Amino acid sequence: MGDPRFDAEHWHLPTNPLFGFIEIPAGPFMMGSDKRRDGQAFSAELPQHETNLPGYYLARWPVTVAQFAAFVEASGHQPADPNCLKGIANHPVVRISRREAMAYSCWLNERLRKLTHERLAKEKPLLQSERRFWEGLADGSLGVGLPSEVEWEKAARGDESRIYPWGNELDPNRANYSNTGLNTTSAVGCFTGGASPYGCEEMSGNVWEWTRSLFGDYPYPQEGPERQARENMNAPDNVSRVLRGGAFYSDAGNVRCACRLDFNPGYRSADFGFRVVVSPLVFSDR
């Protein structure tokens, strides 16, 4: 039997009206770390600064093996590392480069756009968040992609500057990291107590997650050419991109909401995965 939380007819996405996407409201939050509050902060997280974002939708969980396999089967994509499909179906897919994560995102964008007419034509009234989601995909004002590191961090910590998604104290029962002792990936949704203020899960531990952001110094650019340069989709592959969240082997410092890792976007690893966003910035940042 398959995992009943996922819809096999819709590419094994979560079974709910928005396929597992959670609305993150527009507004400011504090990005980065304050050494006075967080003694584990790394220099790349400084200074802490306010950043403002429009509303967007982030996936509750990282992309799973089953979801990536549906993309491979439907699109004919040939994974650079076929071992990415050998994991357990409801675990995060790993051994995926950032380029492959982007390919999945583009494919899912087209699949969801084809559903917009059907969803908007339903007799049962949609919730406002659902209508915004489907109308945005229909008119192209929203698109599926990798989250920026700003979108990722806000969804992880909310507007309370939490050190971890659930609060300021580490707890091995809320995340899959070194002290949990699993030493491998876990099924998505196992650590519901580790949810962020908005309900996103697995944002501490399990797998590092690719973002679309180039690595750069803080403060993060607010708007204009500098921000567009930080999210440049066409930057060469020798320019590092940011990953977030830590992994199953990570220590306490690396599973904090503000922690940043940078790697060559062509790199693949048994602890690198990704999640997707539906955002107005996916296209405007290009």
Please provide a written account of the structure.
This protein has 286 residues and is an alpha+beta fold. The chain has a single domain, classed as Alpha-Beta Complex (paralog of FGE (formylglycine-generating enzyme)). Helices cover 22% and strands 15% of the residues. It has seven helices and twelve strands. The protein has helices spanning 65-75, 98-113, 116-120, 128-139, 149-157, 224-230, 281-284; strands at 6-7, 13-14, 21-24, 27-31, 49-53, 56-59, 143-145, 208-214, 241-244, 261-263, 272-273, 277-279. The strands form four sheets. Strands 3-6-12-7 form a four-stranded antiparallel sheet, with helices on both faces. The protein has a four-stranded mixed sheet with strand order 10-9-8-11. Strand 1 (6-7) and strand 2 form a beta hairpin. The longest helix has 16 residues, at 98-113. The mean pLDDT is 95.
Q: What can be said about the biggest beta sheet?
A: 4 strands, antiparallel
Strand content bin: 15-25%
Instruction: Give the neighbour order of strands across the main sheet.
Output: 3-6-12-7
The count of β-strands is 12
Number of domains: 1
Task: Give a short synopsis of this structure.
The protein is of the alpha+beta class.
